[in-house]
Amino acid sequence: GQNIDQPTEMTATEGAIVQINCTYQTSGFNGLFWYQQHAGEAPTFLSYNVLDGLEEKGRFSSFLSRSKGYSYLLLKELQMKDSASYLCAAVDSNYQLIWGAGTKLIIKP
Amino acid sequence: IAGITQAPTSQILAAGRRMTLRCTQDMRHNAMYWYRQDLGLGLRLIHYSNTAGTTGKGEVPDGYSVSRANTDDFPLTLASAVPSQTSVYFCASSNGSGENTGELFFGEGSRLTVL
Predict the structure, then answer these.
(1) Contact residues for B27 (Cβ-Cβ < 8 A; gap 6+)
(2) Is B98 helix (H, G, I), strand (E, B) or coil?
(3) pLDDT by residue (tens digit) across A1-29?
(4) Which of A1, A100, A37 has its CA nearest to residue B44?
């Protein structure tokens, strides 16, 4: 079956760096998305990776290793507003998105 | 800029009742989707539409139906609601579909409670 694994919850300190991991097992692979979702709100797009390597976008970076079925989202200089859930979604061979359950990130002062 | 509008934002209804969740987008996106989000689970696709006039079944379509009469609107209907359909429902759209699927834009969600 198809599966996305990511930690349920993580805690980090304001100003620090945190890495949220995501491993995927899908029938075929056509890229990986990261979305941010604040409590009670809609998910919003953060990044998309289809090739191996690191994509940097301001304080947020996303990494992909296709051979390992692995991605991570790196958040630098954490701010209180980064407290949210982070959703990983892999695109399978039918171009359907397979979603992880999300990682709830708690930022402490 | 409205983006995607869902209605209602919240609803409580009795089991067995019929309910339609409305979704309208003003971005002229071809593809639209309905997801449900439950605690501890990833977003699960209910139905989708790659273009006006076509629809397809997602991962959890049973008990739900959709229509896509035009580009902008994509209503989701529960013919006879059951308590297991208690969830938060998100409508989303994307400019392309299939291999051209780009980022998804989500509505604010509709919280549905079936008693």
Answers:
(1) B3, B4, B93, B95, B105
(2) helix
(3) 789 999 999 999 999 999 999 999 999 99
(4) A100
CA A23, CA A3: separation in Å to the nearest integer? 8
Residue in B2, B41, B44 with CA at minimum distance from that of residue B24: B2
Q: Does residue B22 contact residue B73 with C-beta atoms inside 8 Å?
A: yes
**Cα nearest neighbour of B10 on chain A:** A40
Residue located via tokens 């429902």: B89
Q: What are phi and psi of B100, to 5 degrees?
A: -100, 15
CB proximity list for A44: less than 8 A, separation 6 or greater: A35, A36, A37, B106
Q: Does B109 touch chain A (CB under 8 A)?
A: yes
Above 80 in pLDDT, residue B98?
no
Chain B nearest-CA distance from A92, in A, is 10
Instruction: Round to whole Å and give the CA distance between B17 and B7.
Output: 17
Q: What is the pLDDT of residues B5-23, one digit of tens each?
A: 999 999 999 999 999 999 9
What are the Cα distances from residue A87, in Å, to A101, A106, B1? 7, 14, 25
Give the pLDDT score at B2: 72
